[in-house]
């Protein structure tokens, strides 16, 4: 007897359903995408659940609907209105196209389907009831134009799949995520999501990205974003991303990418987003990104995965590069420090600028903090503290040299005013105030590191990169360093270091970066070599690691006392850099505590 058998239709339908419907969120995705394809302007999703799981799913839309004949055909395997021939797969513009969803859902649940064709002269709608793939009834009923589908008893006839469903909160979280993603990609459609009859979120179909983001994640989150847009040949990129210095996450859960209106996942495109941030992104952290990518449909293959979440791009490398460029340009066009008030006295910031920038005050002379508290409250300075402060003032001359080395006078012109310095906390953080009363906290080491790094990059690979030492500095290297050094000499020279062999384990340092003589310290050179040897990479990547390490070693550290004039100079230098938001390693340089945020912290709302 033959061991090969042809499966019956019921088994085939259950297998097909297992590929399309993984969980309740899969049902919601397929039904909502059908509503989008049906030109709906309003979609209402209802979810009911108890402790055992999700018991009922309903999706109602005001789309084009169907007549009686189409409604019956829609539940047949591979019945679709989206494509009709193989050539149509080369340029798909709809979310659905395979004709599997309704048949798969009906095979493993109890479905009530009601639909009425838009503009139909008949007053009747069609209602079809299907249980486990078997037609129970069909009838003419009264209903508005559009489509309503109710799914109950999901996996009731496939207990193997039902027992692998997660807890109700987990399944709900997947449903919410799915609806949020589709809503973000279809901002001209109004979405309402209800759970057990209570509204969870609603969008209004305004077409505005910030409106939908605010509806889904809250208005305070939307204010932390900055717009991204760019057109690169046939590729159009639009969206919003996290502003540098805003809250970041340690996971990639806030990447929302759509290609031609379809939400997709792509590690390559996620990598491109992070690369676009460069050093503005703290190590191990991920931004939020809401990006719409528009391509020629013929350059996108969506027929590679049952859920259609993964796609292939024929020009993937180009798209990745375009995303990097668009994000880089957006982040570097935005100013953390707004122009001085005098340059535009009557200017009222747009909604966009209010979302993505903050202002610093007009120029004012630096001043010491003057207390207005009564003398009997303030009292006399504590002798122990005064003595400690005097002892710490000894290194001020060295600090002055470090700050003056980066105050070269050839920094780019800027119309940004210098904030009003208030003082220093813990000899590490600079406090300043802007014209609207916001409190600005600056990490002096991170800020100076950004300044030094930018200047080292500007001088690298030029004749001005290094300065020759009057007396060459001998340095003893390890075997590992000596073995790798010949391949690093050109990179080190580009950074300003010239080394020559002098003995068995000794090399002579003849030149160090012109910007700081302290970079000739043997300990610093060992750190530079360690950075160069830290992993593989192109010449530019190795040079970048070298410059980052050099910048970190040559600048003012934390726990260093600064005068008000030094703090003022440091802020002026920081504002003249192209990327004042973070240090080269991605740590924030500046935190702003707005008046409204301070008021909230003190419950003064």
Distance between the termini: 81 Å
Largest sheet: 8 strands, mixed
Compute the number of helices. 20
Number of strands: 22
Q: Report Rg.
A: 32 Å
Beta-strand proportion: 15-25%
Overview of this protein structure:
The protein has 605 residues and is of the alpha+beta class. The radius of gyration is 32 Å and the shape is elongated. The relative contact order is 0.08. Residues 336-394 have low confidence and may be disordered.
Which helices and strands appear, and what pairs or packs with what?
Blueprint (H helix, E strand, L loop, with lengths): L8 H12 L3 H14 L4 E9 L2 E9 L6 H6 L27 H7 L2 E7 L8 E7 L2 E8 L4 E7 L6 H4 L5 H18 L4 E6 L2 E5 L6 H9 L1 H4 L2 E8 L2 E8 L12 E5 L2 E3 L2 H11 L11 E6 L5 E2 L10 E2 L2 H18 L17 H6 L18 H4 L4 H10 L3 H11 L13 E6 L3 E5 L5 E5 H16 L6 E11 L2 H17 L2 E4 L4 E8 L8 H12 L5 H15 L10 H12 L14 E4 L1 H7 L4
Parallel strand pairs: 1-7, 11-13
Antiparallel strand pairs: 1-2, 2-6, 3-4, 3-6, 4-5, 7-8, 9-10, 10-13, 11-12, 14-15, 16-17, 17-18, 18-22, 19-21, 20-21
């Amino acid at each position: 007897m033959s061991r090969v058998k042809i499966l019956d239709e019921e088994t085939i339908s259950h297998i097909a359903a297992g590929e399309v419907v993984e969980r309740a969120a899969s049902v919601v995705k397929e039904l909502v995408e059908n509503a989008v394809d049906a030109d709906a302007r309003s979609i209402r999703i209802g979810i009911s659940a108890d402790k055992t799981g999700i018991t009922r799913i309903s999706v109602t839309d005001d789309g084009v609907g169907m007549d009686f004949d189409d409604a019956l055909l829609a539940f047949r395997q591979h019945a679709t209105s989206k494509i009709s021939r193989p050539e149509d797969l080369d340029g798909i513009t709809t979310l659905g196209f395979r004709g599997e969803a309704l048949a798969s859902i009906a095979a493993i649940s109890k479905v009530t389907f009601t639909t009425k064709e838009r503009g139909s002269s008949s007053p009747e709608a069609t209602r079809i009831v299907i249980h486990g793939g078997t037609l129970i009834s069909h009838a003419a009923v009264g209903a508005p134009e559009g489509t309503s589908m109710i799914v109950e008893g999901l996996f009731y006839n496939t207990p193997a799949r039902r027992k692998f469903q997660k807890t109700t909160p987990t399944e709900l979280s997947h449903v919410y995520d799915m609806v949020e993603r589709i809503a973000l990609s279809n901002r001209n459609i109004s979405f309402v999501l209800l759970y057990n009859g209570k509204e969870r979120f609603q969008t209004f179909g305004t077409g505005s990205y910030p409106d939908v983001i605010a509806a889904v994640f809250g208005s305070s989150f939307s204010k932390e974003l900055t717009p991204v847009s760019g057109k690169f040949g046939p590729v159009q990129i639009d969206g919003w991303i996290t502003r540098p210095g805003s809250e970041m996450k340690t996971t990639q859960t806030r990447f929302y990418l759509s290609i031609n209106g379809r939400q997709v996942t792509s590690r390559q495109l996620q990598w491109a987003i992070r690369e676009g941030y460069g050093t503005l992104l703290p190590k191990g952290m991920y931004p939020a990104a809401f990006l719409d990518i528009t391509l020629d449909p013929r350059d996108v293959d969506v027929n590679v995965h049952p859920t259609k979440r993964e796609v292939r791009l024929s020009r993937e490398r180009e798209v990745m590069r375009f995303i990097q460029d668009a994000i880089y340009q957006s982040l570097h066009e935005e100013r953390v420090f707004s122009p001085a008030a005098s340059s535009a006295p009557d200017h009222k910031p747009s909604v966009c600028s209010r979302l993505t920038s903050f202002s610093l005050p007009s120029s004012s002379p630096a001043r010491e903090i003057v207390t207005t508290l009564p003398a009997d409250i303030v009292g006399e300075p504590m002798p122990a503290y005064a003595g400690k402060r005097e002892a710490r003032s000894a290194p001020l001359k060295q600090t002055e040299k470090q700050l003056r080395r980066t105050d070269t006078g050839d920094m780019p012109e800027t119309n940004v005013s210098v904030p009003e310095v208030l003082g220093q906390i813990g000899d590490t953080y600079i406090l300043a105030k802007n014209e609207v009363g916001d409190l600005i906290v600056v990490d002096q080491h991170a800020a100076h590191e950004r300044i030094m790094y930018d200047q080292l990059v500007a001088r690298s690979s030029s004749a001005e990169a290094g300065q020759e030492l009057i007396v060459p500095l001998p340095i003893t290297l390890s075997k590992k360093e000596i073995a790798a050094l010949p391949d690093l000499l050109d990179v080190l020279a580009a950074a300003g270091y010239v080394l020559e062999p002098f003995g068995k384990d000794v090399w002579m340092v003849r030149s160090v970066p012109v910007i700081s003589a302290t970079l000739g310290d043997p300990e610093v050179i060992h750190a530079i070599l360690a950075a160069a040897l830290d992993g593989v990479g192109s010449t530019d990547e190795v040079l970048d690691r070298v410059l980052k390490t050099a910048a970190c070693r040559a600048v003012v550290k934390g726990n260093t006392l600064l005068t008000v004039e030094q703090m003022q100079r440091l802020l002026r230098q920081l504002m003249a850099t192209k990327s004042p938001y973070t240090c080269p390693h991605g740590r924030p340089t500046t935190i702003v505590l707005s008046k409204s945020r301070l008021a909230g912290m003190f419950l003064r709302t």
